[in-house]
Design goal:
Helix content: 25-40%
Order of helices and strands: HEEEEEEEEEEEHEEE
Largest sheet: 9 strands, antiparallel
Number of strands: 14
Distance between the termini: 93 Å
Number of helices: 2
Structural class: alpha+beta
Strand content: 35-45%
Radius of gyration: 29 Å
Length: 297
Amino acid sequence: MKKILKKTTDSAVVGIVTAMLIVSLIVTVISIFQLVYVPIIMEQREAEHMDRVAEQFGFLTSVIDDQAAVQNKGIPIATFVTLGSKELPFLISSKASGTLEVLEKSSIITITNESINNNIQTSVFPIGKITYSSANAYFLDQSYTYEAGAMIVSQSKGNLMMVQPGFFVDYNETTNTVNISFNVVNISGAEQKNIAAGSGVCAIQTKFNEISMIKNFTKVSSITINTPYSNAWYVFINRSLMNARLNYAGYGTQFYLNETQGESVKIDFKFSILLDQVNINFKIIDIQAQIGPGWVE
């Protein structure tokens, strides 16, 4: 009996130790997967979500551009934006969220020119925009913005223009003048339907309203754009001006574009020295935008 009891006790001890080792191994594997692989998987998932938002915002940009071109006061068109991404099931992870917002009169375009009476006059035009900003837990936060006809992607280290606005430069070598066409899309919202936040899919509706301004400015001395995305505008406008110079005027004509000063970009045309005149055909197209289902007039 003593021998039988001893063998039974030894087997029980071995079984307990084996079970403890297996549990420890499982806990170790889960811990390694949680600490190492879960952040990698979630970072990739949030990166894919940012790519999806870029595609959705690109589609939104094309819809608004079509509405601005056709100028038909019809039924609002809905575009869907995925605000965030889900967490992993059965594991500890954080889901990403985002905010979609209509910001009215958040940027300002200023045109300075010489009037008929040779007086300097300044015209100020506040414009609105649509912006999405992410709140990621693992991947770098990004924002996508539709501003004045341009689509801009922004990160903590800077911003870049992905879709160009209606800004065209033409140099007439015969008259030594520059003619600029600037079609600005202004976004206006509705009260209580200007913002949505979370991780689900959100609809934003847009509709053409009116062309609020068409004006020709002659003898323009400067254009200033006050915007948080000054770097994107600086790079785009500078490239547009340089292309006009290379294609039409050669290296003899110079355009001056100031470096970004805070949250603004200023274009100075030194036409008194190098150019006879700079003219701008300026158009503002009003697009109404509402976030969420239903349309409020």
